[in-house]
Amino acid sequence: MKREQSVWYIILIACAAGMAGFLYGFDTAVISGAITFLRDLYSLSPAMEGIVISSVMVGGVIGVGISGFLSDRIGRKKILMISGVIFAVSALWSALAGSVLSLILARFLGGLGIGFASALSVTYIAECAPPHIRGRLGSMYQLFTIIGISATFYINLAVANSGSYQWGLEAGWRWMLGYGVIPGVLFFLILIFIPESPRFLVKNDRTSEALQTLQRINGQDTAQKELNSIQASIEMETSTSIRELLKPGLRKAMLLGIFLALFNQVIGMNAVTYYGPTIFNMMGFENNTEFLATSLIGTVQVIFTIVAIFLIDKAGRKKLMAVGSSLMAIFMVLIGIVFYFEIQGIWGLLSIMGFTAAFCISMGPIPWIMIPEIFPNYLRAKAVGIATMFLWGANFSIGQFTPMLINNVGGAFTFWMFAIICAICYIFVMTIVPETKNKSLEEIETIWKPEKRYISY
User: Fold this and answer.
1) Gap between the Cα atoms of 98 and 174, Å rounded
2) Does the keyword Nucleotide-binding apply (predicted)?
3) Dist. CA 93–CA 244, nearest whole Å
4) pLDDT of 127-139, one tens digit each?
5) What is the crossing angle of helices 289-315 and 346-360, to 10°?
6) Among positive and negative, which fits the CA dihedral 401, 304, 151, 338?
């Protein structure tokens, strides 16, 4: 009797791994509310404010740097489960922190957990998902990230409205950070019910387990073909050294992965996410309306990330990134104009909403999908870890230097700088990025072989 494909099983796998994005989204957004109180409570300078926010990225860089090596030894699933535990402990520690140093250390620990999860979640989905819906399922990570960001903005708003500003200074920010225990525990529990990556199982001579998983994902006939393809790909490889990524072909894949990771961060979305209430306050929003405006941005993120899920496997990765980056450049110019002429009120909010929508259909979800797609099976976990290290490094720079830039050169020139970066991103997408929609991971792997240097666009 043939075992049929289980759609619900596929969705469970994608959602379970995608929950890692919720952790990332929560931690990204929660500090934007807490920093409003921490700034006054501890009299933070712009530089120190950046350290409090960016400390999580330092942990993230380390986490992604070692995640690939650890997961190749003990499995994708186990490392993801460990990351959930680390995140929950970090959230509790952050809520109980009695000093700035303690808070920084707690956030560093949380970054370590998120770093593990951010690299391995997208790798896990790429290794499990059927090719024709891999982009859609891979975007689950970004969808959960955005849901985490949006939900956390509303949590921040609710906490801020729960008491006086003095209460917020004493206890409000602790509640904001402490809620992170809940998603960390849920992530761990959900992961209990999902399988290990079939490609990891094959590589570790657990072929029967891999076939059972592939049958539930693809159906029996397709599963056997997929298993044969995985086995053939692994047998062809003689080395798993990361030095392989410096060879012709794979070197181009590695550079592409690094640039996708960098542009996911340096185009400016996290400047809005980390400092949303502060930015809206500069635009004239006050009396907690700055938290409301930030929450509306979160809602836009959710809506347009869902739109992206339906477009990615139809329109293609390259086209969406080209359209999105060009629109982002335009909206960043408009945001800079709002700051330059001190235009207060709705125009700034609308400009940021437009930028956010463009980001969420392009450079938000697509790098997370393409980075694990472009690397061969035997190097995927390590290569994704390296690329994601650059992503977290860029994330650190945005968190650390945004308040310093706004304080020293002003909001207008800060956002015009982001507009230039978005324009560079557009050029990069149009000239370098290949299209990978509807291709199996093994087909994409052939792109980087020296005798096949090009792909049709």
Assistant:
1) 10
2) no
3) 40
4) 887 767 776 777 7
5) 30
6) positive
Alpha helices in 161-249 (DSSP H): 165-167, 173-178, 181-191, 198-203, 207-218, 220-235
Give CA torsion, residues 240, 242, 246, 250, to 10 deg: 60
Only one residue has tokens 């994330």, namely 395
**Contact present, 23 and 183 (Cβ < 8 Å):** yes
Inter-residue contact 317 to 370 (CB < 8 Å): yes
Q: What pLDDT, in 10s, does the model give residues 356-382?
A: 999 999 999 899 889 888 888 777 777
Any idea which residue has 């709705």 for tokens? 346
Q: CA separation (Å) from 98 to 104, 105, 106, 182, 248?
A: 11, 11, 11, 21, 52
Mean pLDDT of all residues in 143-152: 90
Domain boundaries, the chain: 7-194, 245-449
Please give the backbone phi and psi of residue 397, each rounded to the nearest 5 degrees, phi first. -60, -40
Q: Which amino acid is at 404?
A: M
Q: What is the pLDDT of residue 10?
A: 79
Whole-Å CA distances, 291 to 203, 232, 294, 434, 448: 48, 53, 5, 39, 46
End-to-end Cα distance, the chain:
42
Quote the pLDDT of residue 222. Answer: 81
Is the distance from CB of 95 to CB of 184 less than 8 angstroms?
no
Enter the CATH code of domain 245-449: 1.20.1250.20
Q: pLDDT-derived band of residue 228, with 50, 70 and 90 as boundaries?
A: confident
pTM for the whole structure: 0.79
Equal fold, 7-194 vs 245-449 = yes
Mean pLDDT of the chain: 88
pLDDT band at 384; cut points 50, 70, 90: confident
Q: In this model, does residue 411 exceed pLDDT 60?
A: yes
Do the Cβ atoms of 21 and 144 come closer than 8 Å? yes
Give the amino acid at 198: P
